[in-house]
Amino acid sequence: MNPPLAPVRVALLGHGTVGGSLRRLLHEHRDHVRLATGRDVEICAVLVRDPERHRLEVGEALAPLVTESLDVVLESRPDVVCEAMGGLEPTRGHLLRVLGAGIPVVTANKQLVARHGTELFARAAEAGAQLRFEASVCGAVPIVRMLRESLAATRIERLLGILNGTTNYMLSKMEATGAAYDDALAEAQELGYAEPDPTEDVEGLDAAAKLAILAGIAFGTTVDIDNVRATGISGVRAADVAHAAELGYRIRLIGRAERLTAADDTTSVLLDVTPMLVPIAHPLATIVGATNAVLVDGDPFGRLVVQGAGAGGPETASALAGDLVSVMGSEPSFLTTDPHVATLPIAPADARRDRHFVRMQVVDQPGVLATVAGALAARDISIERVLQQRADDGHATLVLTTHPCTPGALSAALAGVASTDRSVLPMLELA
Questions:
Q1: Which of 23, 210, 250, 252 is catalytic?
Q2: pLDDT in tens, 329-348
Q3: Which domains, from first to last, does the chain contain?
Q4: Does the annotation count 210 as an active-site position?
Q5: What is the pLDDT averaged over residues 391-402?
Q6: Which has the closest alpha carbon to 22: 318, 327, 324, 323?
Q7: Residue pair 380/261 in contact by the 8 Å Cβ criterion
Q8: Residue 154 and residue 423: Cα distance in Å, rounded?
Q9: Which band of pLDDT confidence, cut at 50, 70 and 90, is reported for residue 354?
Q10: What's the pTM value of the predicted model, to 2 decimals?
């Protein structure tokens, strides 16, 4: 009978919500890990900024060394390092050292992967160390593994995703109750979905970082997060949500990455994050609450949709644990190289024509609609549908949808139209 394999020694960088959840998960589900891999997991060290504050219970079976020194962590001889400390620095420097020592890394840090992934993968390849980052995108939804492993031999044409649970909760709340944006945000903060400073979520920056990671894997190209055009939901009003419902749509913050092929067969990638009107029959329209979902179109598999909890300590910890189990069960050289094998140009915003939703407050007088229609017609934009509501203050709400046009042409057409409280949102096609 073969002797039992030695436990896998794991070091945690960070012991906040995610790091603490991961430690508890590995302790509570150690039997599942043993069944899946044939080995136990032993937490050998935890790196924190304040060791006394995070000192673990002395009597706990997995009580490790708690330290503020990466040198001490490395001296504990970890087989795998799980990063859950967040931020760019000193985390970037820590992971470069860990990977350079040939130690596999599992991370939940989306901003780090999006901004410094190429550098980290170069170090991983030099040392032959795995770098896995499933937990950096969509929490418990295994979209990174699906794109990087399950669909590695396919051609991805398009990704559409609800990549931020905070904004999806807020939009769902506005839709279900008619709540104003500020009230929906306050409730999301009260429930812990939104931070006291919600800028990264509500302005689309969180979703942009996740989209950069996914698009880079899907299309095999390096994506600079600054090339992802991001528009958040702070300009979405309860009136927009109500009018969208009247038209048969729901508003969702959509991250979109699409492969575009020009007439001369050159390929570019369209990347944007923006609130969109989604047809009620579309799979992403059914996603409510703090849930993430990603739709993938490609050849030869057609369409796949995955969804699940996109945020929270236990959810993110489950993704980290999944990557840890994958490292334990794979060859040391597996997934050490940068998945970005090409350099595809980023398509300009006007490379795609969308239908658009426009809501504006206009003076309630004869000829206003004709003026708007004329301004659009001058840019070869035709109106598909019009709704008009009269107000008591001498103004009216004008809602219209357009046939497909570029955002640049629409912006230019509306520049000469006198209006207030204007919203312009693209509309997602059902197909």
A1: 210
A2: 776 666 667 777 778 888 99
A3: 8-132 (3.40.50.720), 143-309 (3.30.360.10), 353-427 (3.30.70.260)
A4: yes
A5: 85
A6: 318
A7: no
A8: 38
A9: very high
A10: 0.87
